[in-house]
Amino acid sequence: MEAIEEIHLPYYKGSAFRGGFGNVFRKITCILKKQDCTECLLKSRCIYAYVFETFPSSSAQIMNMQKYEKIPHPFVIEPPEINSKNSDSKIYQPGSKFEFHLILIGKAIDYLPYFIYTFHELGKTGIGKGRGRYKILEIIKCKKDDGEWINEVSIFSHTKKMIKQTQSDTIYIPEEFNISHSKYNLSLRFVTPLRIKYMRDLVTMPEFHILIRNLLRRLLLLYYFHCEGREPQWNHKEIINHAESVVIESSKLKWFDWERYSSRQDTRMKLGGLMGSITYYGNIESFLPFIQAGEILHIGKNTSFGLGKYLIDRRNLN
Hints:
Blueprint: E1 2-3, E2 7-8, H1 14-29, H2 47-53, E3 75-78, E4 91-92, E5 101-104, H3 112-125, E6 134-135, E7 138-145, E8 148-157, E9 184-194, E10 197-198, E11 201-202, H4 208-227, H5 236-243, E12 247-251, E13 254-256, E14 259-262, E15 267-270, E16 273-282, H6 288-297, E17 310-313
Helix pairs in contact: 1-3, 4-5, 4-6
């Protein structure tokens, strides 16, 4: 993107992108413009309800989903990192450029044109305090390779407003879990706040089994509701039992507090979480497919804001 006017964004920029996206996306896709999607007769066929509200189907009988009102959103917005070079700058002057990553999951990939059009219109409406406007310069399809986003092909530009068709990528996780008996270090660096609940409390020290429990749940629900419509045949008990043998070797995690204003709920929401690095030690190799998937899809609560993003330190995988 390129700023047309001065843009004022909060310290954690993911809230502005996700909030602005939701407002414009609803105006574009919602037919009845209802305030409460739960009462809408069209919610089962509504693009907005599927992408942004994401209700489970009445037939869903996995993981006690009847107890929950919503399921994981099929998208993640990754804003510029909090500790990146531009993180201290909340203001983008006219002419300055900025970027973010958008990750679409499963069926949501089919709605890519709606996402592009929404961010295009959001640029006209404006974003952040004062509603500073921007224009999209280019949208590039990327592929994650060894933890880094690698540009593959341009699919949309400011000059050529045509969306180029491209193949999506697949994350492969074996359904058969074979435990490795070789012990390794695994270091993760959380670059956006990690919010995980275990036994109904927010976790301040994420034991490895807690991390794996949350990854299993998130990946299973994404796969069931947004991809293949079936449960992966993972032996959860076996996987978690092995995960409990992996220990924390060192931790430099610290709690990062931030809050956002929700226009839908007309309230300020506290969304603090853990940031920093943590190193685990044990039989790590068997868990790597889950960990690598989480590096792309994030983990914990509020992932659509970009929370729960971590990077694997591949130098320590030995």
